[in-house]
Design brief:
Keywords: 4Fe-4S, DNA damage, DNA repair, Hydrolase, Iron, Iron-sulfur, Metal-binding. This protein has about 210 residues and is α/β, with parallel strands linked by helices. The protein has helices at about 5-15, 45-50, 55-65, 110-115, 115-125, 135-145, 150, 190, 195-210, and strands spanning about 20, 25-30, 35-40, 75-80, 85, 90, 100, 130-135, 155-165, 170-180.
């Protein structure tokens, strides 16, 4: 999606001193059957400029295929558009030198708030039939921290969502009501294989309502 240039410039300026890398726009149909909202791009996504193109993306593609959806049928975005990373310092005992790596991390609440205008713009522009937050970061951004993915995954319900309130430097509820269908983040199965059957059941439920 093409965002207002002024908006992107504003967000990049606000995050320039934060441990964030690159910028990835949301992608997909502007009239999607479902709008999926993830957490943030990882290293692979920043390199390929394609959302969910890493390991988690392979699971996403498999589950999309299982319910006869293609990426061209959906829209994919995330609550933070740059890759959050932290710096890891490790001593090489043989050489006595330190090496540094920069693995992915969960975005902070401040980073999510700074990026809030982008997802607000996407939702207002697309007016999705179904909003599917994937994982807690997306669920918290849209509905608030009182919601947990473990409690709400696989359930369809109507709700207002959180949108940016500039004056309060926080969120307020939207005027519009949306159909929400939370899902576990595809990466969850990489860390807990026991969730695989649960996630597949949720996707089958999704297929019955689209």
């Amino acid at each position: 999606m093409d965002y207002p240039k002024k908006l992107v410039k504003q967000i990049l300026a606000a995050t320039k001193d934060m441990p964030l890398e690159g910028f990835l726009s949301g992608q997909g149909s502007i009239e999607p059957k479902v709008m999926f909202v993830g957490e943030a791009p990882g290293r692979t996504e920043i390199e390929t400029h394609i959302p969910f193109s890493g390991q988690a993306g392979k699971w996403l593609d498999e589950w999309l295929e299982s319910i006869n959806l293609k990426r061209s049928d959906i829209y994919i975005t995330s609550v933070v558009r740059s890759r959050p990373f932290h710096t890891r310092k490790k001593l090489n005992k043989k050489t006595g030198e330190f090496t540094f790596s920069h693995p992915n991390r969960t975005p902070t609440k401040k980073e999510i708030l700074i990026h809030a205008p982008l997802i607000d713009f996407e939702i207002q522009s697309i007016k999705p039939k179904i909003l599917a937050p994937m994982g807690n970061s997306a669920l918290h951004r849209l509905l608030g921290n009182q919601y947990k993915i473990s409690d709400w995954h696989g359930k369809l319900f109507d709700s207002k969502i959180q949108v940016l309130n500039d004056e309060a430097n926080g969120y307020q509820l939207s005027h519009e009501t949306y159909k929400i269908f939370p899902l576990y983040h595809p990466a969850a199965v990489l860390y807990n294989s026991k969730l695989k059957n649960v996630i597949e059941e949720d996707w089958q439920k999704l297929s019955e309502i689209i």
